[in-house]
Every structure is written in C-alpha cells, then in structure tokens.
C-alpha cells in the first residue's frame, strides 16, 4: 500500500491526490480488537500497517490532554464505581471534572451502556468487558509512543488528532485547541509536511484555529472538518447564546470554496457519500459529495467502517470499503478494523 506521505501532497489550501492511493486511518486504534484509544489498541493498529492513528482529546480539571473519545468517562471506565458522587445532573462523569491522577486511577474497558442495572457491551463480539488491565494516557504519552515505534520500526505512521467538543471546553473556561496545538508544536508537528492532521466537528472553532491560533503560534498544519447529521454534536455562540450548529452548511456545494479556506479536507459520515434511499444491495448510488470536495481542493476521509455494524446497502465489509474508497472515490477512510482496510486496499492496488 502506498503511504499517505508519498500519496498526498498538500499545496497551500489545496490537496492533490495521486491515483490509486488510499489512506487507512485506525479509528481509535484497532478498536474492533482491543478497547478503544488504549496504547495496546494503537500498537496493534500500528502493526497492521495503517497510515494514521487517531487521537480524540478531552481536557482534565488540571489542564492535561487525555486520549479518550468522549468528553465524559462513564461509557469506557469504572468511574461510576470509584467516584459515585461525581456525576453531573445529566448522570455523566465528565473528564473536565477530574484530575489526571484521578483518571489514571480508573480501569478502562470496551464501550458499554447500563441496561437494567447491568453493563452491556456496545459491540457483543469485541473484547470482553472489564477484562485485563487498561489505562488512559495523555496526548504526550501517545505521541512519544508512536514516535518511538516509528524510530524502532523505521516507519513514519502519522497522527490524526481530534479535539472533542471545543465549544463545551470553552463553556468550561478552557481552550482545548490552543492546548492541543502547543503539544503538537512541542513534538515537531508544525507544517503541512508534518505527518499530522488536525480535525474537529466544531467548524466555528476550526476557523478560530486557522485564522488566529496557528498564525500566532507560527504553525500551519493540515486540517479536516468533520461532518455529521447529529444536531447536538456542535454548538456555536450566537448573540450571547449557544445554538446548535447547522451541518447542512458544510454539505452545500455552494459553501465548499469558503470551507476550503480553513479545511484541507472533509471528514463526513460515509453515508453522506451516497443516496442512501436509492441504494440497495448490488446497487449503490454515489452522489457528488467527493467530487465537489475535490473540485475545491479538499480531500475526503469518511468515518467509520465497522464489520460488525454494516449499512443495509452492502453485503459485507469489503463491499463497503469498495463503495467508499473506489466507487465514491474517497481519499481514505476511518475504520475500527484497520487490518481489513489495509488488506483490501493492497488487493485493489496490486
């Protein structure tokens, strides 16, 4: 498989994608096989030959960046058992309410929810709940881990950093984007040639990152705007009130030239690449999303392919990889099953 550093050349605000080069991003590591975002899951994904490892970030009470998908802890840890009185009114245990030391005292596990007072795994066939010993870690610890592997393995696997809910952190008086960029700069990720991509669902914050933070800090990283249909994913401050961000703005082709001023790429839910209502098994209808992004100089890295949660319009995971990467012509994809993604791309590019 051609590596993304050789396959994608970013020039200013445009991205030029070489033919037959597809990027595989390990979504939360090899999260289909080991608990998400643990160093163990990252090591396994690294060994599977991925191009990038993803890091979702939230901030602790004492201003550390920890690698965790949600900005709360109760879905993937024993926080409710160890700190039963620390939930907010909504019942969630937020990262921002705990110190790093407190978080490191927790045991992390496969994602779950509570049903009838019992823990129920989000994906039944994945790693057993609360088995073995897994811990959370900081962004610095993960970067040093990956850079160490790159040195010993002679590779250049990249990092794909996502700030979780910058709007929420702002409400709590913290600037997660500034803190993230400071760490990235510390470890040498400062230019578009750096093997690092910065992404977020928060478009207002991405504009702030590109127009203020990066210029002030003397860095210019590649950026991706994530896109969802979930109206509660991001909020923006308008006339002193926090309102739900309308993602329809990011999907409208008329706005893509403006979006490309801030984003080198787009990260949509992969369903946004197809006419889902018209698609069925053996008949997948591709829309113009990728073409519109490419016409405006942006790459497209959709999320998230899962073998154990397929859409109705495909029979198996290979059909989904093919639909996203080759029929729709996305430049890469996030997947919980990075080994299957790497294998599929290698088979297509022989």
TrEMBL record:
Native organism: Succinatimonas hippei (strain DSM 22608 / JCM 16073 / KCTC 15190 / YIT 12066)
Keyword Glycosyltransferase: no
Reaction catalysis annotation: a sn-glycero-3-phosphodiester + H2O = an alcohol + sn-glycerol 3-phosphate + H(+)
GO molecular function, one term: glycerophosphodiester phosphodiesterase activity
UniProt keyword terms in alphabetical order: Glycerol metabolism, Hydrolase, Signal
NCBIfam families on file: PRK11143.1
Protein name, as recorded: glycerophosphodiester phosphodiesterase
Occurrences of domain GP-PDE (ranges): 22-345
GO cellular component: periplasmic space
Pfam entry (one): GDPD
One of the GO biological process terms: glycerol metabolic process
Upper lineage: Bacteria, Pseudomonadati, Pseudomonadota, Gammaproteobacteria, Aeromonadales
């Amino acid at each position: 498989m051609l590596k993304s550093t050789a396959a994608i050349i970013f020039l200013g605000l445009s991205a030029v994608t070489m033919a037959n080069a597809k990027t595989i991003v390990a979504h939360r590591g090899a999260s289909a096989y080991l608990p998400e975002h643990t160093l163990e899951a990252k090591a396994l994904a690294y060994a599977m030959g991925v191009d990038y490892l993803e890091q979702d970030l939230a901030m602790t009470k004492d201003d550390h960046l920890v690698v965790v998908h949600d900005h709360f802890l109760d879905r993937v840890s024993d926080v409710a058992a160890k700190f039963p009185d620390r939930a907010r009114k909504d019942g969630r245990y937020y990262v921002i309410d705990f110190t790093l030391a407190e978080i490191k005292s927790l045991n992390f596990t496969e994602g779950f929810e509570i049903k009838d007072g019992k823990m129920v795994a989000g994906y039944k066939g994945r790693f057993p709940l609360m088995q073995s010993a897994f811990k959370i870690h900081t962004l610095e610890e993960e970067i040093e881990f990956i850079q160490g592997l790159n040195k010993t393995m002679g590779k250049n696997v990249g990092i794909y950093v996502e700030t979780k809910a910058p709007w929420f952190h702002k409400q709590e008086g913290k600037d997660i984007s500034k803190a993230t960029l400071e760490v990235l700069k510390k470890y040498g990720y400062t230019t578009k040639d750096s093997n690092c991509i910065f992404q977020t669902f928060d478009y207002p914050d991405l504009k702030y990152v590109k127009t203020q933070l990066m210029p002030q800090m003397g860095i210019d990283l590649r950026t991706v705007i994530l896109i969802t249909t979930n109206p509660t994913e991001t909020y923006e401050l308008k006339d002193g009130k926090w309102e739900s961000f309308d993602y329809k703005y990011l999907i409208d082709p008329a706005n893509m030239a403006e979006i490309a001023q801030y984003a080198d790429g787009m990260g949509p839910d992969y369903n946004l690449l197809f006419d889902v209502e018209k698609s069925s098994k053996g008949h997948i209808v591709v829309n113009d999303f990728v073409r519109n992004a490419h016409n405006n100089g942006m790459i497209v890295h959709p999320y998230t392919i899962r073998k154990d949660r397929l859409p109705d319009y495909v029979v198996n995971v290979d059909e989904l990889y093919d639909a996203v990467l080759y029929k729709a012509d996305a430049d890469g994809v996030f997947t919980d099953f990075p080994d299957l993604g790497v294998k599929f791309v290698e088979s297509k590019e022989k």
